[in-house]
Amino acid sequence: MVCRKTSQRELILQELQQNSQHITADELFRLVRKKMPKISLATVYRNLELLVESGVIGRLEIRGREMRFDYDPAAHDHVVCVKCHRVENVFLGAEKENYPSHAIVDGYIITGCRVEFVGLCPRCQEKTKELRGDDTMGCGCACSCKKSELTDEQKQVLRAMADCAGACAAKDIAAATGLDAKVVSTRVTDLKKKGYVDSPERCRYGITAEGREAIKD
Q1: Residue 116 in contact with residue 77, Cβ under 8 Å?
Q2: Nearest 5°: CA angle at 22, between 61 and 26?
Q3: What gap in Å lies between CA 54 and CA 50, rounded to an integer?
Q4: Of 60, 94, 119, 196, which sits 20 to 30 A from 81 (CA to CA)?
Q5: pLDDT at position 71, please?
Q6: Using one digit for the tens of pLDDT, what is the confidence trace for 43-101?
Q7: Backbone φ, ψ for residue 197 (5° rounding)
Q8: Angle 31-13-44 (CA atoms, 0-180°, nearest 5)?
Q9: What is the DSSP string of 14-59?
Q10: Domains, the chain, ranges and CATH?
Q11: Cβ(25)–Cβ(59) under 8 Å?
């Protein structure tokens, strides 16, 4: 598929190239709007999809996280920080592509392999040390302390998300918990700030690994 050049696409590509991170459509929209105030979020989404389909840029789908876009469409892998969700490139070389199909899944012809590492980035390690006041690398706070920070309503919201198959809308959470939709929206916002909730799709929410840990009995 050939994607013709437009001023909008050129600006989107320019911002993607200048930004060293793998950014979301919403983040890209905020950057592009500074130079093209009349552009809409829908236009940014539409152009990103066209650029992905034409092979000009790459799309990064991290399970449980909002979709991100990569200026470099060439095959490479990624490492994701479990705390700040920073995404960086990892280059493992072509040898990982050479597995015979029968050694992986019977009946399949393996055409590629994508690896995703997870860990704690250097910046978050430093922040963790500062919060704890020592050199112990961990979650930055005792799990019992994190749990005590949650209100009953926040726990209800997290449990409803944990029971939901995939991302769910605020109205689904409200129906499952019996809470008012506005209350749910407020609680979701608070939980996103804590890192317990993310938004893998527009207007839909999911519980993170940290969120699941926080409501463990």
Answers
A1: yes
A2: 80
A3: 6
A4: 94
A5: 81
A6: 999 999 999 888 888 887 765 567 788 887 777 777 878 777 777 777 776 555 555 55
A7: -135, 145
A8: 60
A9: HHHHH--S-EEHHHHHHHHHHH-TT--HHHHHHHHHHHHHTTSSEE
A10: 7-59 (1.10.10.10), 77-128 (3.30.1490), 143-214 (1.10.10.10)
A11: no
pTM for the whole structure:
0.45
Report in angstroms the alpha-carbon separations of 17 from 28, 48, 183, 188.
11, 13, 39, 32
CA distance 117 to 151: 32
Distance of CA 45 to the CA centre of its chain: 16
* Beta-ladder partners of 70: 58
Query: Do residues 209 and 82 lie in contact, with contact meaning Cβ atoms separated by under 8 Å?
Result: yes
Cβ pair 153, 192 in contact under 8 A? no
Q: 10-53, pLDDT tens digit by residue?
A: 999 989 888 766 888 898 999 999 999 999 999 999 999 999 88
Q: Are 60 and 71 in contact (CB under 8 A)?
A: no
Q: In the numeric block, which tokens belong to residue 172?
A: 């689904």
